[in-house]
Structure formats: C-alpha cells, structure tokens
Amino acid sequence: MKKIMSMLIIVLSMVMLVAACSSNSGNNGNNGSSPAETKKPGESEEGGVELAPTTISFLSWNSEQQMKPVLDGFKAQYPQIKIDFQHSPPVQEYNSKLQTMLLTDSATDVFIVSSEMRRQIMNEGYAMDLKDQPFTKVLPPPALKINTDLDGNLIAFSQSSWIAGVYYNKALFKQVGIEEYPDSWEKFVSAALKFKEAGITPFYVNVQDLPSVLTGLVGLETIQQDSDYDKKLFAGEKRFADGWVKPLQKVNELVEKGIITKDTLGLQEDQMAAEFIAGSVAMFASGSWQASAIEAGNPELEFEMKPYYGDEPGSYYYAGNINTGFAINAKTKNKEAALAFFNYLSTSEGLQKFEEGTKTIVTAEGYKPDVHPALAEAYEKGLIAGKIYLPMAYWQRHAEAIRAHTVASVQNMIFGKLTPEQVAEEMDAKLAELDKK
Fold it and tell me: Sign of dihedral through CA atoms 263, 268, 272, 275?
C-alpha cells in the first residue's frame, strides 16, 4: 500500500508541474497582447534551430538606431544569422536606390516596400509571395488587401500604420487668446493669421515631399465624397483637375496669406520639428512618428495632434496609411533565414521591439499598441475610423514619378510660378505622358 501511495504522489506531482509550465508559457506579459506565436522557419519539431549560419542583406528607410531593438532581439534568437543592414532615408532617396538595385538585379534579400513603389514591385514580380506563411495571421485585413496583387500574391508584411495631422502648442494658443483648436478651415486660417500678427510662426509643413495638408484635404474634399475616385482616375474616367483643384486652392490660400512661406522650401522636417519643440511654432504638420521625439525634446510642452478641417465645422480628415511593408526578394538565396526574420517580426516580442524603436503605431491583430497621449484622438477618430488618405497608396501606376512631379509643381506654386489649376493640369499631363511610354 505504501508503495502504491508513493507512486500516486509522484504522478500527481508531475501532472501539477506540467500544468504550471503550460500556464506560464501562455503569458507573454506584453501590453496585454497575444499574437499567435508561430514555429520558426527551419526549426525542428523539438524546437532546435537547424538554420545554417548565413548573412541576409536588408535595405531599410528606418535608420539602424530605429531598427536596433528588432535587430538585437533577432540576433539573440538566431545568433547564427547575421544582418547586413543598409539604410537610405525616405522618400525619394530610398525609392531611387531601391529602383536602381531592382533594375540591376542587385537588390537586398529583404527590403522595404514604399507606397510609391508598391504597384511596380507587384507588377514586376520583384517580391516573394508570403500569403501562405504562418506569420501573416497577425496582419489586419487592410494590410493584407493593400499588399496583395491581382494574382493573389502577398508581397509585403505591413504590421503598423501611421497618421499625420497638425500638432499644436496649447500654451501658445492660450497666449494669443484662442481657447480651443479651430474646427473649420476658416477658423484655422484666422488662427494662423492671429499668430502671424503676434510675431509667432503660425504653421510649418514639410514641402520637400507631398505636403500632408494637401493629401489630407484631398481625402476630405474628394475621397470622402467618392471613394472610387482613384480607380476612376486611372481608368480615364476622372482627371486630377476633377479632384485636386479645391485642395490645392486651400493650400495656395495659406501661401497667399503668408502662412506658408518660401522660406519653408529650404527646411527639412527635422528642422521644423526642432523649432516646434523649442516652442517657437504654433502648429506643425507632421506624423505620428514625431510624437515621442517632441516629448523627449521638451517634456514640459503641452501638444496634441488635430486633423485637417473642412468648410463645415467638424468635417475633417487626416493623412495616413498602412505603413511601409517588409518584402523578401523573389531571387533571394537566403529564403529560410529571411523567413525567420519575418517570423520574429510577427511575434509579440518582435512587434513590441519594432514599436519601441520606430515609434510607429503597431496595428497587428491581437496587439495593443502603446499610443502616445498626444495621438489618442487621431488614433481613434482618424486611424481606427478610417479617415486617412495617402494618394500614392491608391495610384495604380507611375506612383513615384507622379509624386515627384507633383512635389515640384507644388513648390512652383509656392514660388508663385503656377496656379492651383495649372498644378492639377500638369499632374494630368504627366500621367498621360507616362502612359504613352
């Protein structure tokens, strides 16, 4: 009897130990998130890594410092895989470098797919199809849709999103007697002029790229009225002149009233951010990626992101989109190692480290993002509500060429060389020219 009792105690102890281990392994402790963990490519059933030592090359427009948490985390799990990290800043410089690499068959194993080059990469078959990979289960439907080509191939892994609007300095608004942020275009212009009269720089927007104020207004004035506008545009049923003139007129109004000046043409976004951080600019048009940097630069600054408002009080839109995606070169010789990297990106740890380094908003299924307080309204009423727009994400061809041409035309409008109507006409002419080639 004693022998039987001893055996029962041993068996019960083993059962309790296994149960405890199972319970602990299911809790990742990360922001309450629980994306499904997938078996690593190249892993044996026992969990032993079988991948051979190798190096995967990676072209990123996020800096090495921004990607460091992810790179370090991946290295800890896969010490036998090295990453040859290459960086090129967005947007035009990165797109130009990747374009050259793709055309010369020298592209890296892993690269970022920008909105401007997404269609080209799809059409030319430059990226490996990811649709059957287990890590794609964390991707939300919009990320799957935007990165899937007409043949059903998923060409990129986009686990985050961004949103852009107007950061405003609450203290400066109170200083000039404005108690609430203006909720219409007319009030926005009036507030900007009040700052100008007080000797305070009213508004900064980056015009080295397509200004977010312009894309937000196109979303508000055109896309909100006709969600198929871009499809009709590239089918020849609509023109840029049909949907871009009014938004361009509003931007030009800011130019004519001295709210956007020629001086801004010589400023990079980081320079504008520095002045906003210093408290010398009332409103700064930028994206979600700047929130943490603003707080770090001036912890005492009270600021918040607001949308671009329309003529009717309360009508609004933001610029924004599913973020750039990670793709695997269709011709890579390091397929399994690259898939291991993507698998790591999809885990709770990988998502958290990507968020930590890039300060972007992770929108993976089952993951609770750490949204900066200044972005709370923009996140709920803009990103989650779908009131965001980025034209290049929906242009069906020549996206990068049209974007670059439009940036130059808008700069000429700021210089007074073109009217809003002429900018739209040039965009139509550019599309027609590119279609003939």
Answer: negative
* Residue 95 backbone dihedrals phi, psi, to 5 degrees: -60, -40
CATH for 162-321+388-436, options being 3.40.190.10, 3.40.50.2000, 3.40.50.10770, 3.40.50.2300: 3.40.190.10
Tell me the average pLDDT across 305-331. 96
> Could you tell me if 204 and 269 are in contact, meaning their C-beta atoms sit under 8 angstroms apart?
no
Both structure tokens of 239: 């023109």
- For strands 160-169 and 316-322, give the pairing: antiparallel
Report how far residue 23's alpha carbon sits from residue 33's, in angstroms, rounded to the nearest whole number.
16
CB-based contacts of 408: which residues, under 8 Å, 6+ apart? none
Evaluate the CA torsion angle 195, 197, 199, 204 in order and state its sign.
Answer: positive
Residue 403 predicted with pLDDT over 90: yes
Domain 54-156+324-359 part of CATH 3.60.40.10:
no
Domain extents for the chain?
A: 54-156+324-359, 162-321+388-436
Record the pTM.
0.82
